[in-house]
Amino acid sequence: MSLKPVTAVVAYFFVHIAVGAAASDDVGFIYQGFQSSNLSLDGLATVTKNGLLRVTNSTILQTGYAFYPNPINFKATSNSSAFSFSTQFVFAIVPDVPGVTGTGMAFAIAPRRKLAKVPSYLFLGLFDTNTNGNQTNHVFAVELDIYQDQEIEDINDNHVGIDINSMISKASAPASYQANNKSSFDNLTLISGQSMQLWVEYDGVDRRIDVTLAPIEAAKPHTPLLSLKYDLSPIFQQTMYVGFSAVSSPIATGITNFILGWSFRMNGVAQALDLSRLPKLPRIGHKKVSKIFTVGLPLIFVLMLIILTSGVAYYLWRKWKFAEVLEEWELAYGPHRFKYKDLYIATKGFREKELLGEGGFGRVYKGILTTNKVEVAVKKVSHQARQGMREFVAEIISIGRLRNRNLVPFLGYCRRKGELLLVYEFMPNGSLDKFLYNQPKYILNWSQRLRVIKGVASGLFYLHEEWEQVVIHRDVKASNVLLDAELNGRLGDFGLARLYDHGTMPQSTHVAGSLGYLAPEHNRTGRATTSTDVYAFGAFLLEVACGRRPIEPRAEPPENIVLVDWVFSCWKAGNVLQAVDQRLRTEYVKEEAELVLKLGLLCSHIEPKIRPSMRQVLLYLEGSVALPELSSLAMGVSAVGLGPAHPAGFKDITSSFATSIDKSFSLVADSVLSGGR
User: Fold this and answer.
1) Which of 159, 190, 393, 431 could serve as a FRET partner for 337 with CA atoms 20 to 30 Å apart?
2) Superkingdom of this entry's organism (predicted)?
3) Binding residue per annotation — 417?
4) Is 97 contained in some domain?
């Protein structure tokens, strides 16, 4: 006969004796309710008048701790094995309103009575973002969790888990129990507001943790909900505290965590709670209503219904009486007209939080149309009396027929009580200038900038030559170029655009545009042409390539205040690439950057006839046609685009500008550019 089985039995017997003998103090206690208890309470934890331990209430995002006041020996020495222990408690998670979610609570064994420095509803007061998962925590807990967080691998929003130093459970299962007369588990709802029992037991010899759940009326099931083989000796210090931890909900209407009774014992079975002696939970729901209210409330309801019906009828009558007037001449523009009410709702009453910015003629608001959930930009136009409303709307609708992927789509308009509102498609990335100036969060790389330049050039070419009428934009600049979700440049803000038939001369109007982009002849004559748009596009090219505004009053030295001046001086010195935006470092294609800078100088020429058309600009940018060499002699004399091109108010910085054009450069440029015009 082998002696191995006998030896194993004897060893098992002596280990049990050793573990029991090692405990200098087999602590045990029982609370049949918590009236006059000596628990250590912190945060939201308190004892109600009828003896309930309320760990947390509906106060927003605060911790609650309730611990047995004295430390308990869980080991004989710091290096020895952990003792066995057993606990039973009755709890209830009560929602303030049926159906509301929140956070649960945990039974904890920890080296101290206050655990988390910063409350977080994800960690049940056991840890915070800095301590979760640390091996130095020395925390064992059983969580009763009613919130699912994928980051900590929760299985659902109604589960029980065993946590060791982390909220990622070592073992977890949906809240349920197996009655002793059944072979399957029945589900329980932790947040039902009903009382439930929980047993947590640890066998120091077998190194096994058992967690058992049951409703208040059931006997303790023979089969635990969770059973985990795990040695808690490295987790426990020699002395530890036992108690409960929770965090209140982050919303005002949350849940309340109650403990009705608690029993605990070291190295033995915890004394069973007498459930009949436990305090009662507060009433959930409304109290019985007196007969006076059962009779009075229906009468009040009927009266309110009559008042409400009368109010609705009056509202409908007022709406019919003051319906929006639609003039006969507007019928042709029906599909392009929006209802003011729809735009008012879309922009949330044109509130300041929806304000995107201010354009040429008015303020621009972000909105979401309730009919199709489309995001739009709504521009409130300050309409001038110098032009009739009918003609102005006709012009706007004509512009609305423009269809090009490099133009911000115009969707329609609205007119109400003298107000004129223009509706455009919303561009999620806003205007280009936000990516160039004032320390942007994201700096466009060279390829993105070149794509924006080509897009704007394509849009201007469409306006000048491809549509049925010539459209002069009159305000080409970085703040009027909007970026879509893919950072493609789209030309917007047609508030200053003017239409005229192909082959006719545009009418002279008041000078309109932005400082630094106005062509010199526009200042003199007040006449906008495709060539004045090209001049503004030249300033735009330099603006994007250099990451500078056309006019920088604070630039040092003073001769660098005007961007085109500075780029010209760099070109003249034989190092035009010095003008490229320093934030790009060397991460750009030198040939492309040189082309853009030289093309910017050519478009900014003081003589309109020398400027290329947008058709030629596109050919240069695509490399289909080589950019003409800028003669050192000609450019040195003329200082391309400078002199009278500066706006009024900057006369003191124009001393470096020449006012004449070298005839040799004119002949060269005319001969090169004549083929594309």
Assistant:
1) 431
2) Eukaryota
3) no
4) yes
Structure confidence at residue 665 as a pLDDT band (50, 70, 90):
very low
Q: Are residues 301 and 405 in the same domain?
A: no
What is the domain-level CATH number for residue 269? 2.60.120.200
Contact call for residues 617 and 603 (beta carbons, < 8 A) = yes
Distance CA 397, CA 449 (A): 31
**Alpha carbons 31 and 262: distance in angstroms, whole number:** 5
CB contact at 8 A, 233 and 80:
yes
Distance (Å) of CA 60 to CA 119, 186, 243, 395? 10, 33, 22, 56
Whole-number pLDDT of residue 395: 66
Is there a single domain that holds both residue 165 and residue 268? Answer: yes
Residue with tokens 């020449």: 658
How far is it, in rounded angstroms, from Cα 632 to Cα 492? 37
Annotated active-site residue 149? The verdict is: no
Residue 516, C-beta contacts closer than 8 angstroms, at least 6 positions apart: 539, 549, 550, 551, 562, 563, 647
Residue ranges in 582-674 assigned as alpha helix (H): 590-603, 614-622, 632-638, 663-673
The type of residue at 154 is D
Report pLDDT for 554.
79
Task: Give the pLDDT band of residue 392 (cuts 50, 70, 90).
Answer: low
The CA distance from 622 to 625, in Å, is 8
8 Å CB contact between 480 and 434: no
How many angstroms separate the CA atoms of 61 and 103, rounded? 10
The encoded tokens of residue 283 equal 């009433």
What's 472's DSSP letter? E
Domain encompassing residue 593 = 435-676
559's tokens: 């001769």
Kindly tell me the sign of the dihedral angle through the C-alpha atoms of 123, 128, 130, 136.
Answer: negative
Average pLDDT, the chain: 82
Return all residues near 113 (Cβ < 8 A) that are at least 6 apart: 40, 42, 65, 67, 241, 243
CB 221 within 8 A of CB 180: yes
| Tokens coding 9 | 């039995």
Closest C-alpha among 421, 416, 413 to residue 324: 416
Q: Give the whole-angstrom CA distance, residue 69 versus residue 373.
A: 58
Greatest alpha-carbon span in the chain:
122
Specify the pairing of strand 159-164 against strand 208-215. unpaired
The token pair that represents 270 in the structure block: 């915890």
- Residue 364: strand pairing partners: 357, 379
**DSSP string computed for 71-98:** -EE--SSTTSPPPPEEEEEEEEEEESST
Q: Which among 293, 675, 628, 360 has a CA at the least distance from the CA of 495?
A: 360
Degrees, nearest 5: CA angle 336-337-343: 120
Return d(Cα 454, Cα 488) in angstroms, integer. 10
Residues 74 and 143 in one domain: yes
What's the rounded Cα separation, in Å, for the pair 382 and 386?
A: 12
- 41 with 73, same domain: the answer is yes
Confidence of residue 360 (pLDDT cuts 50, 70, 90): low
519 contacts: CB under 8 Å, gap ≥ 6: 531, 532, 535, 536, 608, 645
> Reduced to 3 states, what is the DSSP secondary structure of residue 452?
helix
SS3 29: strand
Q: Which of 145, 154, 210, 475 is catalytic?
A: 475
The CA distance from 99 to 82, in Å, is 42
Q: What is the pLDDT of residue 498?
A: 52
Q: Which amino acid, 667?
A: L
Predicted TM-score (pTM) of this structure? 0.48
Same-domain pairing of 464 and 597: yes
490, 484 Cβ separation under 8 angstroms:
yes
